[in-house]
Design goal:
By secondary structure, this protein is an all-beta fold. A six-stranded antiparallel β-sheet has the order 1-4-5-11-7-8, with no helix packed on it. A five-stranded antiparallel β-sheet has the order 2-3-6-10-9, with no helix packed on it. Strands 14, 15, 16, 18 and 19 form a five-stranded antiparallel β-sheet that branches. A hairpin with a 7-residue loop joins β20 and β21. The protein is globular, with a radius of gyration of 22 Å. The protein starts with 7 loop residues before the first strand and ends with a strand.
């Protein structure tokens, strides 16, 4: 499960024998067809795209996924899993929805195929599961349009010793707005919302947003994320970006230390272009190697700026031969002198 995103939860339910267990909050039903020892069965639903490498033949993943878990690890039995697919934009025919399964967030998805039964009126689909519980997603039969195409997200200290966050959207569709999150850790699960809803424009034209964080009272490094909140209840997260905050020299323009590193990738997921932001503490050779989920080098970028400062390069989603890469997870490796940095990006067509 993606622990960094808000979720709907159902309380643990004991399961022995061959019960049928309904989870009303998450829209999941587990009907055991063989005897089970799945004590304390739980269900969690997350209304975001889970990302990850897509199996062959699946064009996109829906902005919803489930985690079904049990405290028991053996004797779990077989069961029919029924999921409510209402409101999934990338499902044009519920009978063609494909269930995908993975063991953990870094694992590749496995295609479990189309449902054994479905109800178009109730927007539910059922699959027979024989190999335990896990993280489940829905593969679609059409490409999805991301509600937000973000090209920049930055955080800087102002002369008043406040943090000004800026972001640029290239287009917006079905967007309610944005929230800003902050933490003293680089884990999104520890972050707190610090802004009200910042209304989106839902425009096909470029738009720049800003939010100022004036409630910092202790020195240290602060991490920021941006959440785009969509009208259908789903959301995506961008970031992090960070600042090194100091209480001293409040009357002067604070200096932001530049360190060598691979900062962020925007947008992410992307289609077909994304921007790779990085910084150099001093002049250095810079090379970006981009690998697919099989570990194969698909693109090398060796003409990036090499002088001290903040930079970004563009990847157009094509390989070294100029061919469009397929949807999936890609690893972007930055070599700066003798240092190596890695980020992941998802190409979602």
């Amino acid at each position: 499960m993606l622990s960094d995103t808000p979720a709907q939860n159902d309380l643990p339910i004991p399961a022995t024998g061959t019960p049928t267990i309904t989870f009303p909050n998450t829209g999941a039903t587990v009907a055991f067809t063989t005897s089970t020892a799945a004590t304390n069965l739980t269900a969690i639903r997350v209304n975001t795209n889970p990302g990850g490498a897509l199996p062959n033949g699946i064009l996109s993943l829906a902005n919803r996924h489930w985690t079904i878990n049990s405290t028991a690890t053996s004797g779990l039995g077989e069961y029919d899993l029924t999921l409510n697919l209402t409101g999934l934009a990338n499902i044009t025919d519920i009978s063609l929805a494909r269930l995908v399964k993975r063991e953990h967030v870094l694992a590749a998805w496995t295609d479990l195929g189309t449902p054994t039964t479905f109800d178009s009126g109730l927007h539910t689909a059922t699959w027979h599961i024989t190999n335990g519980f896990s993280d489940f997603g829905i593969g679609g039969d059409m490409e999805t349009t991301l509600p937000v195409e973000l090209s920049l997200f930055t955080a800087i200290l102002t002369a008043q010793n406040k943090v000004k966050l800026s972001w640029v959207s290239q287009s917006e569709t079905g967007l309610s707005g944005y929230y800003v999150y902050r933490s003293i850790s680089n884990q999104l699960s520890t972050a707190q919302m610090i802004s009200p809803l910042i209304q989106g424009t839902n425009s096909s034209e470029q738009h720049t947003y800003q939010f100022t964080d004036s409630e910092l009272f202790e020195e240290g490094i602060y991490y920021y994320w941006l959440q785009s909140y969509n009208m259908d209840g789903s959301s995506e997260y961008y970031g992090y970006v960070l600042v090194n905050y100091s209480l001293t020299n409040n009357n002067d323009i604070p200096e932001i230390p530049i360190v060598t590193g691979l900062n962020c990738i925007f947008p992410n997921p992307f289609n077909p272009v994304t921007f790779i932001a990085y910084s150099l503490k001093e002049s250095s050779s810079v090379t970006f190697n981009i690998y697919n989920s099989r570990g194969q080098l698909v693109r090398k970028i060796d003409n990036a700026p090499t002088e001290e400062g903040l930079h970004r390069v563009q990847w157009d989603g094509r390989d070294n031969a100029g061919k469009s890469c397929s949807s999936g997870l890609y690893v972007i490796r930055m070599l700066a002198g003798k240092q190596t940095f890695i980020h992941k990006a998802i190409l979602m067509k």
